[in-house]
């Protein structure tokens, strides 16, 4: 049994690409070296190295029988000789085998299993260069190997033996490198058993888990939890050491959103917060060092943060010289999308749309219109040009500061929300209206010029926009007739329907057939759709429901087969006494009581109570009566039954188990 | 403590010792050291080259009337091109920081992903911003394409932001407080420049005249490129470099018009396309001229 170690030494890999790369490396290795067994496969990484270790590989893969199919006997001797020659053998050494077309020659031989050393040496280069990265580069010259960043060294050891291979002129060996600054300046000789320790002695912690633990242990009190930032820092450092710095409390006069954004997105600092969540004038930076005994790194970071905060304060003050209202005209010079003109054009469209929606939903029209007018003006401010991720937020803060009113400010502040399925929706009805109008406008315009997402390609984040609209409508329970705004643009309605179905499935957890049944019945408002789906979901487990659904499917088939058209009610006089008449009377009763309640669940329970009558009808009555008048009347009865309740759901869409048609 | 100019001298020496030609700044308005022909044209083709130069870089829209301690209309870049990039290029770069007095053992240095792209030059590369104690001090790029062409040899481009580095080295809070030379602050040398050009670029530049200039320079560049395209022999004497000057003029005029707020959304894409066409045309002509020589 032999152990294997691979380290690809690379110039600093972007932090967010490292884990997917390791998964690729691991998968590629496992697939290629299956034949060699192995008891454990371990991968890890720092920004400068991708590491893979395998334990207990067998030194040689088992022999395998190789069988090559040759010509049929009927092809004659010449063909047999040619085949034998090609296989480096003679005809008498060939075996024969029978298949569907006749008897043929086959050449069977035992192929010796490769040694692990040989196999590794043959395949490793490809496994490494096959790792997928979102963006690669070449560095040895045109046509050279591509990788995420230049490969500078490779360690490849099978026990104490170097596995010979090379990538881009770099030969595998047994030397690694330590931390750029803190480690030895010369290459470090390593073996499998001392690899981790040699690197540790040279200020490289190979284990990402260990680096994470080291950061967490050093963060100190009151640090705002931030898993994403933590992960970034784990893969930006080889020897992480947190340090704590402070800033002048006077900066706390600036909005916390701005301070946090500067710290997190621009400086990768953790914020420090009080019990109530408000910021303290401190931060934690994670360095790639073993400490800061003289406080120089702290001072440096404090100065940079001071400059950034000064910038923010400066932007805030300068931006106030020109109010948001005075910036509306400037939107003419901000591109919304090359084919779709400026944000000025967009603003005008969104205002119109927002007005209609506000009217429909009873939102404060004055607030909505003001917010829609000003929503994009922060794109012209220095603050947003610097901190683009704060678009909307800055506009909201400025609107409040400039006396546009809290309602307007909040609506602007929230109007980009929700940004994900888990994200919050705008807090106020006015914010919801502006957000919906803004997103619908983007969708309408993009679809109009055929910028439509395909497969995984969605450069304008239209799925997210559509999902946002759907999420707001569902979660704020807004009675908006969505179709009115999406039906006049080709392909947009089905696109929205997809998002609606996705929401019902992912966020609400309904089964796909429940969703199909409800969607097949059409929809007016999403709130109504939500209520109908919930009702189906709730009534489904009751005894009568699924059998009834199966009967509906049967009714649908019968009507289809008999090509029944028309919507006249059945003539009571033509109904046969017994099950047929009973079904009709029960139906009339259920129809009346279902209409008397507005609660879908009650309606459905009423409908489900028809089951025994329907069952009996199908048991006893032959729909296909020889008398065409009776036959037509029976079909009319069934049709009334089907259509009467089809506004709630198309029950025939419900997948039933082994019952009915 | 080293003055601004001392730091510049040391960096130039450092790279001269490593075989770089020390050039002077290009004598036209450019937005970045990359646009100087010593980078934009030299990176093309199979000939190795090493060069370092300071390039004052004009970005009209970044002007702040000399009132912001960290922002400038015109900043100084020290640009290094190593073609092809040596294997130990990052170690050499770290050595340059030590040469200007950064004790790396006492500071925190990180290489954070930052790829570079200049659509108007048909150029892009892969690299990092180098961050020292939280301050971005250098842009490091492995060029991949220039003028729309894959590069034969991959050059490393190291762009030092001189003001930022010296703010760090001199431990001051404002660029204007940097000691440029003994007895002279950065403000003494450059503040008037910042103030006046901000006023001109944002408020007073004559838009109609800028457009006229743009059209004229574009026309001249196109005229030269068309003549070059028609030429069969004697390519080496052909004025491709003067054609590039015309393209650079257009690029700067575009920036001025932009800071003046004179380019509408509908025009913008088109104007960028016009500049790009010139730059790509020159790069192509230059590559052909080199190959013919």
What can you see in these coordinates?
The complex is a heterodimer of chains A (661) and B (293). By secondary structure, chain A is an alpha+beta fold. Chain A has five domains: 2-60 and 115-201, 2-Layer Sandwich (Alpha-Beta Plaits), CATH 3.30.70; 67-111, no CATH class; 208-320, no CATH class; 325-531, Orthogonal Bundle (Hypothetical protein af1432); 542-653, Isoleucyl-tRNA Synthetase, Domain 1 (Orthogonal Bundle), CATH 1.10.730. Helix content of chain A is 46%, strand content 15%. In chain A, 40% of the residues are buried. The model of chain A has no long low-confidence stretch (mean pLDDT 93). Chain B folds into two domains: 4-200, Bira Bifunctional Protein, Domain 2 (BirA Bifunctional Protein, domain 2, 2-Layer Sandwich), CATH 3.30.930; 205-292, Class II aaRS and biotin synthetases, domain 2 (Methane Monooxygenase Hydroxylase, Chain G, domain 1, Up-down Bundle). The mean pLDDT of chain B is 94. In chain B, strands 1, 2, 3, 4, 5, 6, 7, 8 and 9 form a nine-stranded mixed β-sheet that branches. Chain B has a two-stranded antiparallel sheet with strand order 10-11. In chain B, helix 6 packs antiparallel against helix 7. At the A-B interface, strand 7, helix 8 and strand 19 of A face strand 4, strand 6, strand 7 and helix 8 of B.
Which architecture of the largest domain in chain A per CATH?
Orthogonal Bundle
CATH class of the largest domain in chain B: Alpha Beta
Tell me the number of helical segments of chain B per DSSP (H or I, 4 or more residues long).
8
The CATH architecture of the largest domain in chain B is 2-Layer Sandwich
Count up the domains of chain A: 5
**Mean pLDDT of chain A, as a whole number?**
93
Largest interface, with counts of residues having CB < 8 Å to the other chain, equals: A-B, 51 and 45 residues
Rg of chain B: 20 Å
What string gives the helices and strands of chain B in order? HEHEEHEEEEEEHEEHHHH
State the low-pLDDT regions of chain A, or none.
Answer: none
Question: Which class do the helix and strand fractions of chain A yield?
Answer: alpha+beta
Number of helices of chain A: 25
- At CATH level 3, the topology of the largest domain in chain A is Hypothetical protein af1432
Low-confidence stretches of chain B: none
Give me the count of strands of chain A.
19
- Major sheet of chain A: size, sense and barrel closure? 7 strands, mixed
Helix percentage range of chain B: 40-55%
Distance between the termini of chain B: 48 Å
Main beta sheet strand tally, sense and closure of chain B: 9 strands, mixed
- Global morphology of chain B: globular
Sheet-strand content of chain A, in percent, reads 15-25%
